[in-house]
Specification:
single chain, 295 residues, Rossmann fold, 5-stranded parallel sheet, two-stranded antiparallel ribbon, 9 helices, 54% helix
């Protein structure tokens, strides 16, 4: 548009002048094209270089982030490993230092075991009772002892009772000895509160001798013992807890008295040991005929 107007004005001075002006305009249009091309090339090169630098910076940033992520991930994995090991150790410590128990209503709970030297005392007491309570020459082939051993193997618990002259304690001790428990994993419980010191990780068998008194019924002692019977029954019947055996030894008359005041599933059944004068008689709870052979 501007070219046509310029040529129209130049035509006033004649065609020759108009031709000169046209020639000047055409030269102006083409003379700057190389410079424009060079400018565009330099612009493209600079833009390309700038984009390349940006891409390199992005790659560098990504690598730094990736390296940081991998480092943080490794640190988190290490922390998780430590936490897992600590949790496992803590869980093991809590498990070993506590005892599961179930009350008569079926409610389950845990109680921490006592930390003291009571295990050593109970272990020594067991060793003393076995040393002085078992006759030097005895037979473990009697039907009574076979029955006691069978009860232990099948149910992990047994109640052995009898009269003063029936050697029921010796029968129980011989049965325990025949089970070949590891000496260091055998304990004798004399106080109800000491039950909380024992666990399946420490014991193979726990012997409970005269839990209801000796000669006469000790109601206070019997009452305290009855409080741990739910836990004892849970411990010997629960495979998750870890089986270990419990042997309760008592006078028959005191067992009967205990049943009147503190009935419990743990002492419903008992193996009765009779005197040598009695050839046979009926078991206290099961109706099983038991024979007693003198040692």
């Amino acid at each position: 548009m501007y070219t046509d107007a310029t040529l129209a004005l130049a035509n006033i001075k004649g065609l020759a002048y108009k031709g000169d002006i046209r020639k000047v305009i055409d030269e102006a249009k083409t003379s700057n094209m190389p410079d424009l091309g060079n400018v565009l090339c330099r612009w493209y090169e600079e833009k390309s270089l700038s984009l390349e630098n940006t891409i390199q910076e992005l790659h560098k940033g990504i690598k730094e982030l990736q390296s940081k992520y991998e480092q943080e991930t490794a640190e988190l994995k290490e922390r998780l490993k430590v936490v897992t090991e600590n949790t496992r150790s803590t869980k093991s410590m809590i498990y070993k230092s506590s005892r599961k128990q179930t009350d008569s209503s079926g409610r389950k709970s845990k109680r921490f075991k006592t930390v003291d030297n009571q295990l050593d005392i109970m272990r020594n007491k067991f060793s003393e009772t076995m040393a002085y309570g078992i006759p030097k020459d005895y037979s473990d082939e009697t039907e009574t002892i076979k029955t006691i051993i069978k009860q232990l193997r099948n149910y992990h618990r047994v109640v052995v009772c009898g009269s003063n002259d029936s050697a029921y304690l010796q029968a129980a001790l011989i049965s325990v000895d025949s089970m070949n428990y590891a000496n260091e994993r055998c304990f004798e419980l004399t106080r109800a509160r000491d039950w909380w010191s024992i666990g399946s990780d420490e014991a193979d068998v726990t012997l409970v001798v005269h839990p209801f008194g000796r000669g006469t019924f000790d109601r206070q002692r019997a009452s305290k013992m009855s409080e741990i019977f739910d836990s004892i029954l849970y411990s010997v019947d629960n495979s998750e807890y870890g089986f270990f055996d419990v042997v309760i030894v008592t006078e028959k008359s005191l067992l009967e008295e205990f049943r009147k005041h503190f009935p419990h599933k743990l002492i419903e059944d008992a193996v009765t040991v009779y005197t040598a004068d009695a050839d046979e008689t009926i078991d206290l709870s099961k109706g099983i005929i038991q024979f007693f052979i003198p040692f």
